[in-house]
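Supplementary Methods, section 5.1.

A reviewer requested that the exact input to the structure prediction be made available. We therefore reproduce it here, unchanged from the version used in the analyses.
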Amino acid sequence: MNRLGSFVRFVLSIVVVGILVNLAADFLDTHFPPARNILVYLAALVMACWALTLLTKFALSYFISGRYAVEALVLNSRDELLLYHHPHHKCMLPPGGRVKRTEFPNFALQNRLEERLGLTPNHYLFDPRFHGGLDANSGNLGEIERFAAPFLVQREIHRQRSFVKAHYDFIYVLKLRDDNVPLSPSRYRPVHFVDMAALQEMVAQKRTFPDVLDAYRRISRVAAQERPV
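The structure derived from this sequence is encoded token-by-token as follows.
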């Protein structure tokens, strides 16, 4: 429906501009004949540039920026949550990013972590408390390979970048193999781990989003049951 509305607005804008150009051309043809041809050429050039810009943006959006994203809730040995500063959202968020149209979610998760933090699969594992059954690849499966299912799936309904109106997030819980793993966040500084109290304060100060706190609460409930009394 949103695409149809955008297309209708685009067509109507072309019709309105065409009417205005015709009216101006008729006026100039009557009062300033030499200027009429110049106006028509300029209008055609503007319309062509406008159409080319829209087509280019749409093509880039289609081939580069998908409508799905992955997010990693990365925990250290104390089950604290890793956050980095996101330059677009201007707040602290768990690492992740868009799933490109040429990627599958599990590979997108691996690629975004390596691109944004320098984390490779050797640095972490899927937390078995939330992604059980990963040993299911053993046995006779034929030409089949199974991957971890997301811990959570959510839909971001606020407007995204480019032509994307909303996208779905596949959220995974990862556990670092070593708390001292080196991080190279490049554009995503600062990076730090937070506990529940710190995260609640950050939400109150609007330094992160409420859904991050909700996801961490779900993790903490499970983690509390696992700790020895």
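The chain has a mean pLDDT of 83. These observations are discussed further in the main text.
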